[in-house]
Amino acid sequence: MREFWKYLLFSPVFGGAMLFSVNTVYAGEIHTTSVTNNSEIKAENSTQDQVMAQITSVSQLSDVQPTDWAFQALQSLVERYGCIAGYPNSTYRGNRALTRYEFAAGLNACLDRVNELIATATSDVVTQQDLGTLQRLQEEFSAEIATLRGRVDSLETRTSVLEANQFSTTTKLQGEVVAVISDVLRGSSVNNQNITDKNTTLGARTRIEFVTSFTGRDTLFTRIQANNILSPNIGTPQGNFAFAGEDGTTNAEIDALFYEFPLGEKTQVIAIANAGAADDITDTVNIFDGDGSTGALSTFGTRNPIYNQMDGAGLGITQQFGDRLALSLGYLTGSANDPSPQNGLFNGAYGALAQLTLRPSDRIAIGLTYINSYKQPLLTGSTNATFQNLLEQGDPAFSSNSYGVQASLGISEKFVLGGWAGYTNSRSLTGDGGEADIWNYAVTLGFPDLGKKGNLAGIIAGIEPQVRSSSIPGVDRDRDTSYHLEAFYQYQLTDNITITPGIIWLTSPDHNSSNNDVVIGALRTRFSF
C-alpha cells in the first residue's frame, strides 16, 4: 500500500498537478500562515492580490538551486507539464510547512487540474502510457482501497455514536474520590493534653468537575465537592492533612469556580469566583503539590506554607517573558461576597501575591515569591506561628509580609531534588501592637516512576513555621525546634486508581521538646474518571 501512495505522489500527472495547485494556493490565497520572517510577511502583504505568472524555467525560482534534492523533479515538471507557480517575489519555498486547510485547498485544485490535463491530453502532456499506468494501479490496489473505504465508514459510524452520546460539545465531565484511612501510631500528649483520637478513621473527599472551553484556549472550571476527612487532633496544627475538610460534614457544595483565558500570546488571566488558592495563580515549584489528590499527604509537604495565606475569590495574571521567565500577580479574598463592615472585596481578609518563576532549563525551576496579607494566618506550624491564641480571643487584625524561595532540580529523569525557605513578618494592628518573625524550611527528594511508570516516591524533611521572635501579646517565641519528616509511596495500580501509604513523623511537636514525638500513618486511595 505504501508503494501505491509513493507512486501517486511522484507520478508526473498526480505529483505535478499537486505541486501546481498547492503553490498556486500559496501564491494567490494564503500569505501569512506559518511565516516567521518579518520581511516575508511585509512582502506578501504588499503583493497579496498579485499572482506570479506561470514560470517556464526552474531558474526563475530564486530559492531553488541545482544542488537541491528535488531540483530535477521540479525541472521536469516545469519543462514537461508547465504546472509550477511561485510567490510574487520569485520564491518557491519548498521547505515551508503545510497546514491542513492549505492541503485541502490544494487537493481540491489538484483534482480540477487532473481533469483538465486528461481532457486536453496530448502526447506531449499526459501520455496514454501514464493513463494506462494509473488505471492498472487502481485495479491492482482495488482491494486495499476498498479496505480503507471500509475503515473510513466504520470510523464515521463510531464517531456518529460518540457524538450522539457525548456529555457536551463544550464541556468535559471528570471527577475523583479520595478515600483515606489514618491513625496516630505514636504519641500520647502534646502541650499537656492527651491525644484523644488514637483510633483508626476513614474519610472521603468526592469531587465532580466540569471543564468547559468556548474557544479551545479558555477554561471555565466548576467543581462540586463533599469532604468529611479530618486531620488528627494532636494538639497542634503541625502534621495536618492536605486533603482534610473543614468541618467533617458530607454536604456537597460549589468548591473551585474560575474562568481562565489568554490575553494575547504571552499573557494568561484567571478570574476566580470561589475557593481559589495560590496554585491556581502561579507555579508553587514542588513536585509533590497535588492538592491532596496526589503527592504529599501533609499541608506542609504540599507547598511552602506562605502560599496558604491566599484563598477565596479574586484575579490572577501570568505574563511570560520568553520560555524561561514568567511573572505572576494575584489577589484573593475570602470575604468577597460579605457586605458587612470590614469585609467585601477590598476591606476584608486578603492575600496579594507576586512571583517570578525562572526555568533556566527543562529540569530546573526557581520561584521567588512575595505575599502581602491581611488577617490571613498560616495554616500549618506551631500554635504560636498560626496565631491560635489570638484567633480564640476573637477576630484579631494583623498584616503580614512573606518572602519565599522555592527550587526544583531534576538530577535525572527518576530523581528530583527540591526545597524551599519561607519567612513571614506579621504585625498586630490592635492593642499594644508588636510583630513576630516566622520561618520555615524544607528539603524534598522525589523519585518519579519508581518501580513502575506513574509511581512517585517522596521524602520531605523540614521545619514547619516557627516563631523565632515576637513582641505580640499572646504570641510567644517557640523556644525549641520540631522537625517534620514525611515519606510516602504513590503506587499507580491502574490508570484510574492510585494507592499511597505514608507516614508523618513530628519530633518535639509544636516546637516544644517537652512533647512526645508523634507519628501519623495514612493510606490514601484515589479513584479518578
What can you see in these coordinates?
This protein has 529 residues and is α+β, with helices and mostly antiparallel strands. A 16-stranded antiparallel β-barrel has the order 1-4-5-6-7-10-11-12-13-14-15-16-17-18-19-20. It is built from eleven helices and 20 strands. The model is unreliable at 1-51 (pLDDT under 50). The radius of gyration is 33 Å and the shape is elongated.
Question: Summed up, what is this model?
Answer:
The protein has helices at residues 2-10, 12-28, 38-46, 71-80, 100-119, 128-140, 142-165, 278-281, 299-302, 344-347, 388-393; strands at 171-186, 189-190, 193-194, 201-212, 219-227, 253-262, 267-277, 289-290, 294-295, 311-321, 325-333, 350-361, 364-374, 398-412, 415-428, 435-448, 456-470, 484-492, 497-506, 518-528. It is an alpha+beta fold and 529 residues long.
